[in-house]
Every structure is written in C-alpha cells, then in structure tokens.
Amino acid sequence: MVGSSSKVSIIILVAFAITIPCLEGGIGEFDDFLKGQALEAHEIALESYVPDPVNMTDDLNINVHGALTEVFKEESNHTRRELKQKYGGPCLALNPIDRCWRCKKGWAKNRFKLAHCAKGFGRKATGGLEGKMYIVNDPSDDDPINPKPGTLRFGVLQKEPLWIIFARSMIIKLNYELLISSDKTIDGRGANVMIKDGSGLTMQFVNNVIIHGLRLQNIKSTPGGTIRDSWNHVGIRTKADGDAISIFGSSNIWIDHLSLSDCEDGLVDIIQGSTGITISNCHMTKHNDVMLFGASDTFTGDKIMQVTVAFNHFGQGLIQRMPRCRWGFFHVLNNDYTHWLMYAIGGSSAPTILSQGNRFIAPNNNAAKEVTHRDYAEPSVWEKWQWRSENDVFMNGANFVQSGPPLGKLPFNKGFLMKPRHGSQANRLTRFAGALNCKANSPC
Q1: What is the rounded CA–CA span in Å between residue 263 and residue 266?
Q2: Calpha distance 104→311 (Å, rounded)
Q3: Where does the pLDDT of residue 51 fall: very low under 50, low under 70, confident under 90, or very high at 90 and above?
Q4: Chain mean pLDDT for the chain
Q5: DSSP label of 417
Q6: Residues noted as catalytic
Q7: Domain edges within the chain
Q8: pLDDT: is 61 or 99 the higher one?
Q9: Which residue, among 380, 82, 386, 198, has the nearest Cα to 372 in the 3D structure?
Q10: Which residue numbers delimit the Pectate lyase domain (predicted)?
Q11: CATH architecture assigned to 2-429
C-alpha cells in the first residue's frame, strides 16, 4: 500500500510539473521564481494529502456530539431562518470549533489559542502562531509593489510568520488582488473589518494560512499589472476574477467565521491541486456561484484535493455550488442549507462527496427540489461516483440522489473526518455562523 501511494504521488507530481506552463490563476508571467514556488507548494500538498481519508478520522470529533449535550432554549428548527437573528443571552459555543476558544472572557489576551482549534482536513493550519503580532492601522491600499507599513497588504507579504489583527473597525477597498504569503493569520476579532468594493484575498502556492472574522462583500474584478506577490518577488498579474477567497495550489488553509456575499465571481474558489482545507462557521448570502472546488475536468492534479465544509449557514439569495466539486474528497457536515434556487451540492469528474448531518430546505420550485446536481456525465457513469448521505434532514421536498457504494465503516478515532451530529441539530450548530461581534474582556 505504501509503495502504491508513493507511485501515485510521483505520477501526480510529474503531471503537475508538465502542467505548470499552462497554469492561469492570474499569473501574467510565469518566471523561474514562480515555477520553483509552485513545485515547492505541490510537494507540501502531497505531504498534506491523506491517502485513505475514510480511515483517517479526527481525534477530537467526538466533541461534535459533546457540543450539544446541554439543552438550550431557542427557536424551533422547522422554519427558514432570517438573514441574521439577534441574540442577547449568555455566550453559547455550540460546535467543537467554537468550544475550543469562544465564551472565554480572556480570548483577546490569548488570541493564539485559535491556532489550536482547526478541525477536519485543515486541522494542521496554525497560521502565524510562531510569529509576532502585526496591527493593521491603515485601511488604504495605494501601492501594490511597495505597500505602506500598517496596511493589510504590507503585513500579508512579510517573510516571517505573523498574527495580523486590526487596530479598529475599518472598511478596506483593495485596489489590487491581495496575495497572502505562508504562515499568516488574519484575525478580525474585536473589530468590524469589511473588505468590500474592490479585490479579494488570494492564496497562491502557499502553506499554513488562517483567515478568521472578516466580512467580504461586493468583491469586484480588478486590473492586473505589476504586483508584489511575496516579500522578495514582484510579478505580472492578469485581471482578478472577483472571487472573495481564492485558494490556488496551496495547502493547510483554514477559513472560519467569515460573512461572504454578493461578489462578482465566486465566494470561495479552491483549485489547482490545493488540499488540506477547512471552511467552517461561515455565513454566505446573495450569490450565484458560491463555492468551486476544482476548476477543470481535465486537471487530474485535483485528485489530491481534500476539503472539509462544516457548520456553515447557506442563507438567503444563494443559487448554486454549495459546493461544486471535481476529482477530490469532500466532507460536508452539519451545515444548514436554508436557501438555494438551482441546487445545493454538485460536481463532475468523479468526486467523492460525504454529506453528513446537514439540513436541506428545498425551495418551493418543484423543479429545484434535488439537492444534488451532476454535470457532463450520463447516469451510467455518475452512478459509480461515491456521493453518500448520512443522517441528513430533508425538508420541503428536498432529496439527495445517492450514488456509488457506501464509503465503509468509519472508525472515528484519529485523523481528519469529524463525526457529525444528526441533521436536526444543524441549525443550532450553525447559529452563530459568520463574523462575530467580539469585544475584549467579554466572551465572544
């Protein structure tokens, strides 16, 4: 088994190297520096890849069950939720990620605690844990080559690990695509930080990044040009697509407690051999193409893609792709799908999708009751794809078309898959999805 896994890794690495000249991802000029960065990033991705994800389960996943052992008095779970519900009671941490750090009065004095809270395939992400604190006190974004100290762009481009926080609430309009380097945490807790009306956040050929507690809204396509993409390299970029979050050839990424809406392209795109990623506790609204995991039906390098999507609320105004998957392994658990217009979960190129403990509330349109959508394949082909539903709750006529054989017994001992609660608990587990209104010296 070990020998066969090594051969697969070598084949994928060679295929990736051959594909490098064809990469897009906003790169206008693929020079020797970027080629080296791409190969290094892919080697890290292969190290992060779990050859048998079904049998690699999270050592803390039983906490998903423990997270709801207490009985909370809250709204019934049989109706659609409003876009945002006010809550004035005591701090509640209802899922295992939140239980790791929330509801502790001293969270602001121990921000680095967050680095130990990731679960799922992105559980290795520690971000800027080993670095210093960097404070953003300037919301401007005027120079993409030599950004000013104090700006967000200056912080994310530094060589060393950094834990990036914000001096106050601010609106940041990124005039150019923001390329984030390895070993960074962007921590918006304690301030209302909104990225809007400009470009979005990109992780390209990097490793170990945490993005937490931001609001990204109305992200637009922005011009390319000469842009610094790391502390020691300036490159030519093409026009940015308008994604809120773009993950390209990167590994060990954790996206948590973001509020995402109304962007020109996708809310979260994960492509080009990225792996080891968790998207959790996010609130997504008012968008068409929500999440794209794998951009091409011909790029087999995405077979190493492994993504956890957990405790998110897919809310008002969403149309499709929650997510839309290719090639890899995708664990979708304990999310609350209260709105979609076309479908919720889709894919092509034989991805493996394990849907567990989600709540799906179908739209009133009888033509859009099906949760799943398969592209570019006849039933005789896609019936072999492993798309399995376990302990999901289906409401208002929602239905999940399963395919392929069962994934087998999941031991849930140590590894990367979290054991879910039943779908009837999904709205509780996701109740505080999105950016939180945290205040220092108070539970968050």
Answers
A1: 7
A2: 20
A3: confident
A4: 88
A5: B
A6: 321
A7: 2-429
A8: 99
A9: 386
A10: 169-366
A11: 3 Solenoid (2.160)
